[in-house]
Structures are given as C-alpha cells and as structure tokens.
Write a structure and sequence with these properties.
This protein is α+β, with helices and mostly antiparallel strands. It has helices spanning 2-30, 210-244, and strands spanning 34-38, 43-45, 50-55, 62-67, 70-72, 77-80, 84-89, 98-103, 113-118, 122-125, 131-132, 137-143, 152-156, 159-164, 168-171, 180-186, 190-191, 195-197, 199-200. Strands 2-9-8-4-5 form a 5-stranded mixed β-sheet, with no helix packed on it. Strands 13, 14, 16, 17 and 18 form a 5-stranded antiparallel β-sheet that branches. Strands 1-3-7-6 form a 4-stranded antiparallel β-sheet, with no helix packed on it. 18% of the residues are buried. Mean pLDDT is 81; it is low at 16-30.
C-alpha cells in the first residue's frame, strides 16, 4: 500500500513538472519580440510613408537599424499600441535603405526586415518577411505613375521567368528552389532594384519544444514506472519467501 501511494505521488509530481516546463516554454515564445512593416513589402518609393510595428517583449523595445554599415536609432513618430508600438517614417529616402529590427533593453532582439528605398520609377512588391514553404506568394511590378494595361517582365537571378500583361506573378507552393534575386521591368518605364526572396520552413506547433518535452517526459515516466514495478515485485517476492519460512 505504501509503495502504491509513493508511485502515485511520483507520477503526479512528474505530470506537474512537465506541465510547468511546457508552460514556461510557451510563455517565453509569447514574450518574443516581433517586427512587421506596413506596407508589407521590401521595396518602397522615395517620400512614401513606412511604419515599423514592434510587437511583444517587455515594453522596453526600441527600433534599431543599420544603414550603410552604420548602426542607428531611426528617427520616427512613435505611437503606443496594445501589443507594442509603431514607429512611422512619414517621408522615407533612399538613404533609409537597410536592415531594421526591434531590441529590448535586456538585449532581446526581433526578426530583421531589409528594405530598399528607390528614387526610380519601378519597384517589385513582394512580402517583407520570408515566404513560408507551401504558401502562394504574389509579386507585383508597380510603377510610380499610373499606367493602364501595364506590361511587366519578371526575372529571377537575371533569367526571364514570366511576361505578365497584368503586372503580377504568383509563386505557387513556395519551396527552397524559389530562393533567389528577383526583379521586374516595365518597357518604356524602367526596372526595379533586385529583391532577395527567402523561404522558411512551415512551423505547425505553437510551442516549438512542446513535443520534445512531451516525449522526454513520457520516456522518463515509463522508466520510472518500470523501476517502481520492479521494486514492488521484488518486495512481494521477499514477503513470499518470509511467509514460506
């Protein structure tokens, strides 16, 4: 009876411990800092407004950036939101091209977003963040001036991929094979800057270490139960021997 009670308490303790570790893992993920931008694209025309949304963290995050190999604190109009803050640059310039991220006072850093600001007449609109494997990503060749019946040519690594009369191209079921340098051109108008398109793997778990912790805890619990059952068996055999003497 005492051994059974001990077994029950150990199993209960194990379940509580596993739940605590999984909860801590999920909490750490939910506290992560994340950066997204609006409009959601890598390339922008000069004098366009661009907003940087820093979400999550401990509330101390600041927008950071690297322009021309120099790390800076970008000047922008900062506004608090329910999930973090927004920094808006009302008129962005070619000199603002670079890498941006959010960073807390404790050194916690978000994902990075690279943007290109051009004084040219054409940009390639593609998502600012890497494409996710299996998704469909739309590319749009955009002219600064309104052009009816826009004809656009799309290139990957300087090789012609598609000629579109609608100025749009779709990458269906994105994979690692789609990684590369993209650009587009509009006859008689101009060519966009090159745009590096990256792809990341699909992550289905809300908490990335949940299943790993679950497997490890399950194995540990099985081993623990096996040892305790073995102990119970040995004790029972010992009692039988004592009884038969």
């Amino acid at each position: 009876m005492e051994v059974t009670t001990l077994l029950y308490r150990l199993l209960l303790f194990e379940c509580i411990l596993m739940g605590t570790e999984v909860q801590n893992t999920c909490t750490q993920k939910s506290d992560a800092v994340f950066l997204r931008i609006h409009p959601n694209r890598q390339q922008h025309f000069e004098y366009d407004p661009v907003s940087f949304h820093c979400e999550g963290g401990d509330g101390s995050a600041q927008l950071r950036g690297v322009r021309s190999s120099e790390e800076i604190n970008p000047e922008c109009q900062r506004k608090r939101t329910s999930t973090g803050f927004v920094c808006t640059i009302s008129n962005i310039y070619a000199a603002d091209s670079g890498e941006y991220w959010c960073e807390t006072k404790g050194g916690q850093r978000s994902n990075s977003v690279n943007i290109t600001v051009t004084a040219g007449s054409v940009i390639l609109e593609s998502p600012a963040l890497p494409g996710i494997e299996g998704d469909t990503v739309s590319l749009n060749c955009r002219s600064k001036a309104i052009i009816p019946d826009l004809q656009a040519y799309f290139y990957k690594d300087d090789l012609l991929m598609e000629n579109s009369s609608a100025g749009k191209m779709a990458i269906i079921s994105v994979s690692k094979l789609d990684v590369g340098l993209y650009k587009c051109s509009i006859p008689g108008v101009g060519e966009s800057p090159g745009n590096w398109f990256a792809v990341r793997a699909l992550q289905t778990e809300t908490c990335p270490f949940f299943y790993l912790l679950l497997v490890l805890r399950t194995v540990f619990t099985i081993v623990l139960v096996t040892l305790l059952l073995l102990l119970v068996g040995l004790l029972h055999c010992g009692k039988l021997r004592v009884t038969h003497k």
